[in-house]
Amino acid sequence: MIIQRKVEHEQREEFRKRFDIVNKFNHRHIQEYFELFEDSKNVYIAAEILKGADLITEFSENRRITEGKCASIIYQILEAITYLHSKGLAHNNISGQSVQFVAEGSD
């Protein structure tokens, strides 16, 4: 998957630094980022493809979610947060849109 972001010239160095940090993550509950490319107007990131919906979409489409499913979701989110904290980092945007479900059977 290629993610495209318009990044102003003066913000590119900060963007590169952030990419260098997330590019080192290796955790099953954190999306993997592979490479960063740039042109004169945009920055492109090659990232792992995640097949599934975000948390908001999943909950709005699946009205009956069991307590066990909720506990499993929370546990997985906390595993990822614990991993980030062990690396000395904090996630600054945990929201329903930043939590992505991966479809069962996806590699």
What does this structure look like?
The chain contains three helices and three strands. The chain starts with a strand and ends in a 21-residue tail after the last helix. The protein has helices at 12-22, 55-61, 67-86, and strands at residues 2-6, 33-38, 42-47. The chain has 107 residues and is an alpha+beta fold. The mean pLDDT is 84. A three-stranded antiparallel sheet has the order 1-3-2, with helices on one face. The protein is globular and about 50 Å long. The chain has two domains: 1-49, Phosphorylase Kinase, domain 1, CATH 3.30.200; 51-107, no CATH class.
Extended strand count: 3
Q: Regions with pLDDT < 50 over 5+ consecutive residues?
A: none
What is the first-to-last residue Cα distance? 14 Å
Helix count? 3
Approximate strand percentage = 15-25%
**Radius of gyration over all CA atoms, rounded:** 16 Å
Fraction in helix: 25-40%
Structural class comes to alpha+beta
Largest sheet: 3 strands, antiparallel
| Number of separate structural domains | 2
> Which sequence of strands runs across the widest sheet?
1-3-2
What is the molecular shape?
globular
H and E order: EHEEHH
**What average pLDDT do the residues reach?**
84
Q: What key phrases describe this protein's structure?
A:
3 strands; 3 helices; alpha+beta; Phosphorylase Kinase, domain 1; 107 residues
